[in-house]
């Protein structure tokens, strides 16, 4: 499967509408499976909430790294595979944090550093594609008052992640994720089925 990655330099808000099918095609003309990344605030409007458990909750942050993934390789689409890919993306990011000496814990698709919430994520499917939104706080600012949060720039007072290496982090996460999906496809193609 060919996956196109586009990093958008413009800052814009994630309001939840970007999880809609074919958003990357409609906004950027990207055909097929894709990952679009950008930096910007998050403020998910109630009409765009996709997780029943989040109804009535605020999901917002002043500044986050956003990843929107869309896959067209499963027809009909498969919610289980969408969630497995979401968890794979989360685990890859945790692997990178571990390599940088940052200790984390995970609850489902949520990553915590020192007990403080670093990430948000959702996976879902439409009739034509599977979608994932994964986002990481840059700073502990503008987040809901009832959630203890942390940002990438807050970890070790900015000595691990900062504006100088943020784009490298984004591309590292995306490249590892694409490589995992592609090597799974290769493994499938060379594996003899059980009779």
From TrEMBL:
This is DUF366 domain-containing protein. It comes from Methanobrevibacter millerae. It holds the Pfam family DUF366.
């Amino acid at each position: 499967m060919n996956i196109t990655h586009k990093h958008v330099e413009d800052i814009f808000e994630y309001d939840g509408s970007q999880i809609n099918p074919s958003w990357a095609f409609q906004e950027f003309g990207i055909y097929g499976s894709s990952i679009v990344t950008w930096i910007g605030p998050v403020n998910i409007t109630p009409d765009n909430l996709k997780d029943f458990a989040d109804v009535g909750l605020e999901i917002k942050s002043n500044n986050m790294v956003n990843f929107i993934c869309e896959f067209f390789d499963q027809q009909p689409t498969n919610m289980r595979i969408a969630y497995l890919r979401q968890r794979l993306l989360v685990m890859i990011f945790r692997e990178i944090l571990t390599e940088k000496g940052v200790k984390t814990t995970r609850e489902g698709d949520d990553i915590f550093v020192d007990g403080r919430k670093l990430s948000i994520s959702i996976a879902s499917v439409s009739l034509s594609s599977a979608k994932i939104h994964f986002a990481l706080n840059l700073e502990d600012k503008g987040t809901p008052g009832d959630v203890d949060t942390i940002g990438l720039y807050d970890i070790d007072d900015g000595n691990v992640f900062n504006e100088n290496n943020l784009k490298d982090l984004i591309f590292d996460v995306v490249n590892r994720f694409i490589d995992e999906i592609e090597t799974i496809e290769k493994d499938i193609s060379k594996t003899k089925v059980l009779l």
